[in-house]
Amino acid sequence: MRVAIPKERRPNERRVAASPETVKKLKGLGLDVVVESGAGAGAAFPDRAYAEAGAVIEAQPAAVFGDADIVLKVQRPLGMAEGGPDEVHLLKPGAILIGILAPYGSAEMLKAYAKAKVTAISMELMPRITRAQSMDVLSSQANLAGYRAVLDAAAEFGRAFPMMMTAAGTVPPARCLVMGVGVAGLQAIATARRLGAVVSATDVRPAVKEQVKSLGATFVAVEDDEFRQAETAGATPRK
User: Fold this and answer.
1) To the nearest whole percent, how much of the chain has pLDDT over 90?
2) How far is CA 124 from the centre of its chain?
3) In what side-by-side order are the strands of the sheet with 175-179?
4) I need a surface site. Which of 88, 181, 207, 239 has the fewest CB within 10 A?
5) Is 165 exposed, middle or buried, given 0-12, 13-18 or 19+ CB atoms closer than 10 A?
6) Per residue in 109-166, pLDDT tens?
């Protein structure tokens, strides 16, 4: 069975669907792996690293897609209307396409998969249960998004995040407010705290208050009727 790792062609996309370490695991399962030349360049994985892991490097998209039984991608395939090449039409009938396919925002692509007789598996729809944790692409990417959001904010802020005490005076620490305390929000809180900011966070769910406090941040609640009802519903009755 042949697994293909094509290059991601959408603007600003630097990720790749498999690392050289993943290729080693696939090879260990007895699979043949082909990687498009330059697929890992944006993620600092050179072609040489894939070749050393046992993958075949192909320069032409048609050679990568054409004989593949399974195609792994980060984002959904590109179409001619989006700047091509038309990656769906490069897939052979019966191939399995796995990636973050955003099916609700690309109804035309669903029709294209069906017409091409491709089995499409959208990883972001994987149920977030214990048995499927290793396949949870949303949490891993949200974690990175929360981390990067704070780094980008720090770059735009233009001042130091931590308190700076110098002979010339003291610079107070930055104050950071995180809106929403999901996976990305928790990572944003932790990153801002590591950079030395005074952090507060808010969420419509009272249940996350303890998580926020455990990271050293202050929880800010909008005390409306809905919040109070949720807080009451989540409280454990005393015996």
Assistant:
1) 75
2) 10
3) 175-179, 198-202, 218-220
4) 239
5) exposed
6) 999 999 999 999 999 998 888 888 888 999 989 999 999 999 999 999 989 999 999 8
> 177 — phi, psi (to 5°)?
-115, 125
* Predicted pLDDT at 8: 96
Degrees to nearest 5, angle at CA 164 with 161 and 170: 120
Query: What mean pLDDT comes out for the span 70-89?
Result: 88
The token duo for 98 is: 């796995």
Q: Which of 103, 95, 143 is nearest to 119 (CA)?
A: 95
SS3 state at 30? coil
Reported as a single tens digit per residue, the pLDDT across 198-210 is 999 999 888 899 9
Whether the full predicted model's pTM is greater than 0.85, yes or no, is: no
Instruction: Say if residue 6 is preceded by a cis peptide, omega within 30 of 0.
Output: no
Query: Cβ distance 202 to 176 under 8 Å?
Result: no
Q: For residues 150 and 152, give the distance between their C-alpha atoms in angstroms, rounded to a whole number.
A: 5
The total number of residues shown for the chain amounts to 239
CA distance 46 to 40: 6
Tokens 């894939």 belong to residue? 50
Would you state the pLDDT for residue 127? 87
Terminal CA-CA length for the chain = 60
Rg of the chain over Cα atoms, rounded to whole angstroms, equals 23
